[in-house]
Structures are given as structure tokens and as C-alpha cells.
Amino acid sequence: MSERAILRRCVACRKLLDRKQLFKVTRDYQDGVVLEGGMGRSAYLCPNEVCLEESYRRKRLQKALRCQLPANVMEMLQKRLNHCIDAAVEAR
Questions:
Q1: Which of 7, 29, 77, 78 makes a 20 to 30 Å CA pair with 88?
Q2: Using alpha carbons only, what angle is made at residue 20 by residues 17 and 23, rounded to the nearest 5 degrees?
Q3: 14 pLDDT exceeds 70?
Q4: Is there a contact between 53 and 11 (Cβ–Cβ < 8 Å)?
Q5: pTM of the model as a whole
Q6: What's the CA gap between 25 and 30, in Å, rounded?
Q7: What's the CA gap between 66 and 83, in Å, rounded?
Q8: What residues contact residue 70 under an 8 Å CB cut-off, 6+ apart?
Q9: How far apart are CA 82 and CA 59, in angstroms?
Q10: What is the rounded CA–CA span in Å between residue 34 and residue 27?
Q11: Is 18 helix (H, G, I), strand (E, B) or coil?
Q12: Are 80 and 35 in contact (CB under 8 A)?
């Protein structure tokens, strides 16, 4: 039996993609804002530089999560993006 993709929309570019292809940012009821875990209000972001910059510039993540983002969240997303880019380059 094939597994159906669970689709989510990127807050920056508005593309509808499988959630496994996106970064997940969650406003957790206990721990504040967390990446890839927690229970609570979530927003998704494409793993590319353009979407990351757009979400920061237009405060798309803050609006989707309905809270202020700590500065370290954007830094962690940038590091995760750089890691994905490095892994893609090594795979070639």
C-alpha cells in the first residue's frame, strides 16, 4: 500500500509540497518556538535561501505562528539550510 503525501504550504512562496520536504517551525505551548518537533501551532518553510529571506523580511513566520520569533530561530534555520546545501553538493 503506497503512502500518501501529506501536503503543507510554505509561508513564504505559498507552494504546496510534501511536509517531508519542508522545514517545520512550531510554537510549542511549553518550550516556545522549536524546529522539527513539539505540539502546537506550526508553519512550514521551503529549504531555500529565497524563502528564508522572504519569511524574515516580511515576518511570515511570526504572522503564521502568531508570536515573536527569538533571533536564534532564524540562525538555526540558516544553519539547517546550509547543511542541506552542503549535503546536496556532496551527493553529486
A1: 7
A2: 85
A3: yes
A4: no
A5: 0.86
A6: 14
A7: 28
A8: 32, 33
A9: 21
A10: 6
A11: strand
A12: yes
